[in-house]
Design a protein that fits this description.
Rossmann fold; binds S-adenosylmethionine; alpha/beta; 8-stranded mixed sheet; 13 helices
Length: 399
Amino acid sequence: MDKNVQEEPFTGVIKFTPPLYKQRYQFIKNLVGKYKPKKEFTVPCTVSGLPRHSHRYSHVADLGCADCTLLWMLKFCSCIEVLAGLDICENIMKEKMHRLSPLPGDYLQPAERSLTVTLYHGSVADKDPCMLGFDLITCIELIEHLEESELEKFPEVVFGFMAPTMIVISTPNSEFNPLLPGVTFFRHPDHKFEWNRAEFQSWALSIARCYNYSVEFTGVGSPPAGMEDVGFCTQIGVFIRKYSQTSETADFEKPTKATYKTVFKAVYPSLKDEKYLQNAVVNEVVFTAQVIQRSLLDHLKSEHEEYNDGPVEIKSKFQHSRSCVSEDLEKLAVEKSMEPFVNGNVVYIPLAKIFSFPKVNQLCGTFEKLCKLITGKVTLSSDGSAVIVNIEHENEEEN
Ligand code: SAM
């Protein structure tokens, strides 16, 4: 038995924990996690030599998305970069669509992946090119709300035209209904039909055959102990496309005019956008420089105190180590060395040292990119090879 079954003896009152709708959404989330796109190819980083992976992110659409709760849950899946919702009822989508907008934290710490969320007003009985190129399309508790004419068009639109890699369809299993209190006919007044398992499976298998998909059946909302014969409360078909996209089936081969209306669009801040990447790199470089500077000064201070009796101005403490170095020699020293040093009131932190920090390295990828992104944004030595930090204030505080 799965974890979401009632484990207590059946008392005649069905109570799903978590609630059934949450189990359906969780089923989709788990599926996304299971099939999340693998790292696609590996290229060595030009400076560190470490392999860098390029990801292929998923495009997921939810048809009959209603108040967008599933989309809202999916926006936290870091492997998704395109989320789309479609519903024939514009008002229901608008009710809570603000939840799909980026939050202040998304701007403070932009994600590595890009994410675009779009909501469309339209019908699954109509084709629109905006639904092409998806990896996963979900239809949760949708088909039983379709009119006969819409249900007839549904396979050609979703399987034939949209033709994503995977399609998940869930619908009530009518065999479970006698166990649901108060359900005498259908579970909801807007349902046009409710199928038993044989009916759903025969419909699904004939579509799978026709559009070259495989299908597996499962469900959520397990029956109580001793009543397993009725099957899951919600029956689910998971369809997987058997062919790969070729030029014949690819998007550009399917010219269709737009029929859906866009009612919401949010583009999340992402490090893929140069503006946000630059911000993140500058912040990280300044932070890293401060960490290095602090550790250098602490080290030098403790070294000095070992040989002398009291605190002394950093400037005079370390000047002797570099004060005799001419400007040219100093330049050479910065170029040759990865190590930071103090000269007068200024600490020099070589960029090469900063680039060796994993976070900076990961953000920039290459040393050249690091230089490009911080130029004009961070104070650098005259030759541009080191970040310089003025420590005059430190000496003033000491005094
Ligand atoms: N998928 C959501 C969920 O699981 O919570 C909502 C399911 S709700 C029971 C069915 C949704 O399908 C409704 O929001 C309804 O407006 C939408 N719907 C009905 N007919 C539709 C059609 N032809 N095209 C798109 N959406 C439709």
